[in-house]
UniProtKB/TrEMBL annotation:
Keywords: Cytochrome c-type biogenesis, Repeat, TPR repeat
Occurrences of domain Cytochrome c-type biogenesis protein H Ig-like (ranges): 299-402
Pfam families registered for this protein in UniProt: Ig_CycH (PF23892), TPR_CcmH_CycH (PF23914)
Biological process according to GO: cytochrome complex assembly
Top-level taxonomic group: Bacteria
All residue ranges annotated as the Cytochrome c-type biogenesis protein H TPR domain in the record: 119-275
GO cellular component: cell envelope; plasma membrane
Gene3D superfamilies: Tetratricopeptide repeat domain (1.25.40.10)
The organism of origin for this protein: Vibrio panuliri
Name of the molecule in the record: C-type cytochrome biogenesis protein CcmI
InterPro entries tied to this protein: C-type_cytochrome_biogenesis (IPR051263), Cyt_c_biogenesis_CcmI (IPR017560), Ig_CycH (IPR056412), TPR-like_helical_dom_sf (IPR011990), TPR_CcmH_CycH (IPR056413)
Subcellular location: Cell envelope
NCBIfam families assigned to the protein according to its UniProt record, in alphabetical order: cytochro_ccmI (TIGR03142)
Keyword Repeat: yes
Amino acid sequence: MTLFWIASIVLIALSGVMIALPFIKKKENNDAALRDELNKALYKDRLSELEEETEEGLVENQQELIDDLKQSLLDDIPSEKHVSESAALNPWVVIVPSMLLTIAMSYGLYAKFGAADDVAQWQQVSSNLPALSKKLMSPEGAALSDDEMQDLTLALRTRLHVEPKDATGWLLLGRIALANRDIDTAIGAMNKAYTLKNDDPDIMLGYAQALMLSQDPVDQDTARATLGKLVQRNYMDVRVFSLLAFDAYERKDFAAAVRYWSIMQQMIGPQDERYEMLGRSIENAQKQMGIAPSDAKSVSVSINLAPQVTASPDAALIVSVHNADGSPVPVAAARYPLGTFPRTVVLDDGNSMMQGQKLSQLEGYVVRVRIDNDGNVATKEGDWYGESSAAKMGEAVEVTIDKQY
């Protein structure tokens, strides 16, 4: 607001200068002096004409005409009283009321039509952008009210107008648009964020999420490709696989949907309330495939890490299911990023390794878990591992990694 008042005062001051300028700056020419000079010139011209006419005999009494001419010259001189009254006019009598009228009309019209309250609210909202952004990004982000969402949108648009290369700002604007189901705005904002920072996983995920809601097949293909890049980079976020599962189910690729939902179950574990919901989704997809739920058996493995175990963050977690007789050849296996512990993974027939033998056909089994440090499954030196006790199909098992090759 300080800038507004300074600008308005400057503009009014300029208006005052324009009003006062004609009164303060006197004319260089003087009307009375010009009139006298003109009368003198006319008088001299007329004297010359009278002399010529007298010489030609056209004028009998030259002196009388000259006297009349002088009298006419004197009659054209204004009175001193009139001149003094004109000179006595004070220009400030006009300037001061004009300035007051200008100030009153300017601020009066702005108060009536200038939306001063809206401007003040806009500036206050812009100043609250950091707090609103922090609240949106926090786990309680859903607690933002509709008014706060509108304020945040306004503040973000203002900031992005000034800083159009703020990728995080575009990401936030896209998320708000997604929450409001404004697909066009979401795609536009996410696209700008992705253009500015196409290697940021959060931006890639947001961009894919927006494109998934588009009705354009090209946009949906781009979304799948973007999600595929995240999976290749081992970006283990439940939202990635949720989008992939939803997309696969919509395309009637039920096998892929089951695979993605199973991965989600592995990531969140049975203790999460979403686990059962995902199980129902898997059963529904399997029904669409003609597979009875009772035939779809899986192995749930809870994995813990002993205190003495150390592993590189780039290491891989290899989980294998073997026949209960201790056969070294796995019936099913899966490889995961190391992640955090404790954690739970679930293996099913999709992880089967042997042709003609499915995991669900086992009556009993043991589970072995290994931390592969060098990325080569064939080498075991220095790797940590653990093994479960024998269990029957349908029973969950626990494995503690506490031994080293």
